[in-house]
Specification:
Strand 15 (460-468) and strand 16 form a beta hairpin. 41% of the residues lie in helices and 22% in strands. It is α/β, with parallel strands linked by helices and 496 residues long. Strands 1-2-3-4-5-6-7-8 form an 8-stranded parallel beta barrel, surrounded by 9 helices. The protein has 4 domains: 7-279, Aldolase class I (TIM Barrel); 294-323, no CATH class; 329-380; 390-495, 2-Layer Sandwich (Double Stranded RNA Binding Domain). It starts with 6 loop residues before the first strand and ends with a helix.
């Protein structure tokens, strides 16, 4: 197989963020983008600029601050979308407009309500228009794997004729099998790319049948030289191709794939951890490459073999995907020490974010004495919004037999309000008190407490996801006091 380059296109911040319950702020998006740059992914799809003012702001913020990776924004086949995408990303060192439209009969009929001729015209005019603004144009045929092949080839050829240099063939609903996808990509390579060295064939596979990574890797054999994925495999429904799994499969099985990638594999674990913390989506323990148990050995036979020679049960080393360092900070650390610790982690915060993080750090350090790296990273991952209208002043709870009560005081627009409530447990009682103060009908959808450290003074991260007036909102807080942290997390969700 020809030994050439595979482009890693990461869509954590666009397709990944479309997962239910995830709503990243522009600053949170920038933190992830900076980590993706350390991972050395080639293209960062920063968002869908035209979808909302907040998404445009996030895309633009990333475009201004990321220097090495190409910054892409998604756009429908419409001039307004394309213009907004370009305005958001044109400040980047390297920009890409990613134009898409649906091409399957079921999508054209029920979603677009357009004919083949209209879709073909949209593709032609949109790529042509985008090319006037930006040299680097990607075109995607949504639901390509359920599209009539002759029509798909015609649309993709049209996109190339108008200047698209990356042609993406998405398995949008995770319908394809490796055999299907190999045959389709081979046809696209032969009939669309041909001998045109300037055209890259790309994959974008969803995981509805658990085949996203397999399909994407199979496509390399057919000549695909870009793979699109998301960190931890997050995304709509069952998620996307996992970026980290693709990277390590290529690195570990060069004998099979023979393509070069630019990724810095030692940044994989940290990237996974940051995405998990900021999105509130946990990583399953047995997740390939980044799961808690990915390099754990419990069986006696496995332990025996591993102790003799680690390669008996490990095909890649923990070091290769990023070994966790130990950084300890305490309550006596000042701003200079805190800033130095962040510098060693290559984290650069603006003044507002730094002050907010330092304040949270001091509160936790006062309670437990020492803060290790994992706690520090969790603190950075939940930067508080100083503009929140509602803040927690105090909370006290009482539980006896089957009875639980809570007394909560909130500062609402500068005025302190106190309410007492009962509930099935202390957390329920505290949440009820908060809702009574705010006259809220929000419904708790998910509540999760995850220990960051071990021991009696362990720090926990609390994540709440609520349905507030038909809006899914997510809040996070870290604390050594689960009740206090739970109320903080609940408030942060309500404040969004």
């Amino acid at each position: 197989m020809k030994n050439d380059r595979l482009i890693i296109f990461d869509t954590t911040l666009r397709d990944g963020e479309q997962s239910p319950g995830i709503a990243l702020t522009p600053n949170e998006k920038l933190l992830i983008a900076q980590q993706l740059e350390k991972l050395k992914v080639d293209v960062i799809e920063a968002g869908f600029a035209a979808s909302s003012p907040g998404d445009w702001e996030g895309v633009n913020l990333i475009a201004k601050n990321i220097k090495n990776s190409t910054i892409a924004s998604l756009a429908r086949c419409h001039p307004d979308d394309i213009e907004q995408a370009w305005e958001a990303i044109k400040v980047a060192n390297n920009s890409r407009i990613h134009v898409f439209t649906s091409t399957s009969q079921i999508h054209m009929e029920h979603m677009l309500r357009k004919t083949k001729e209209e879709v073909l015209k949209d593709a032609r005019e949109s790529v042509k228009y985008a090319k006037k603004l930006c040299d680097n144009i990607e075109f995607s045929a949504q639901d390509a794997t359920r599209t009539d092949k002759d029509f798909l080839i015609e649309v993709l050829k049209t996109a190339v004729e108008e200047g698209a240099t990356t042609i993406n063939v998405p398995d949008t609903v995770g319908y394809a099998t490796p055999k299907d996808y190999l045959e389709l990509l081979t046809s696209v390579y032969d009939e669309v790319k041909g001998g045109n060295e300037d055209v890259i064939i790309s994959t974008h596979c969803h995981n509805d049948l658990g085949l996203a990574v397999a399909n994407s890797l199979t496509a390399i054999t057919a000549g695909a030289r870009q793979i699109e994925g998301a960190i931890n495999g997050i995304g709509e429904r069952a998620g996307n191709t996992s970026t980290e799994e693709i990277i390590m499969a290529i690195k570990t099985r060069q004998d099979q794939y023979g393509v070069e990638i630019n990724a810095e594999t030692k940044e994989i674990f940290e990237t996974s951890r940051l995405v998990s913390k900021l999105t509130g989506y946990p990583v399953q323990y047995n997740k390939a490459v980044v799961g808690k148990n990915a390099f754990s050995h419990e069986s006696g036979i496995h332990q025996h073999g591993f102790l003799r020679n680690r390669t008996t049960y490990e095909i890649m080393s923990p070091d290769s995907v990023g070994q966790e360092a130990k950084i300890v900070l305490g309550k006596h650390s000042g701003r200079a020490g805190f800033k130095d610790a962040l510098k060693k982690l290559n984290i650069d915060l603006d003044e507002v974010a730094f002050n907010s993080s330092f304040e949270t750090f001091k509160k936790i350090a006062d309670r437990k004495g020492e803060i290790v790296e994992s706690e520090l990273l969790a603190i950075i991952g939940q930067i508080e919004n100083s503009l929140d209208k509602t803040k927690l002043v105090s909370v006290s709870v009482n539980s006896k037999d089957d009875f639980a009560s809570a007394k909560v005081t909130l500062n609402v627009n500068g005025k302190e309000i106190t309410k007492e409530s009962t509930g099935d447990g202390m957390i329920h009682a505290a949440f009820t008190a908060v809702k009574n103060i705010l006259n809220s009908d929000a419904v708790l959808i998910d509540y999760r407490v995850e220990s960051i450290t071990k021991g009696a003074d362990a720090t926990a991260e609390i994540v709440t996801i609520i349905n507030d007036k038909n809006l899914m909102k997510q809040g996070r807080a870290i604390s050594t006091d689960v009740v206090h942290g739970s109320v903080e997390s609940f408030l942060k969700a309500l404040n969004k």
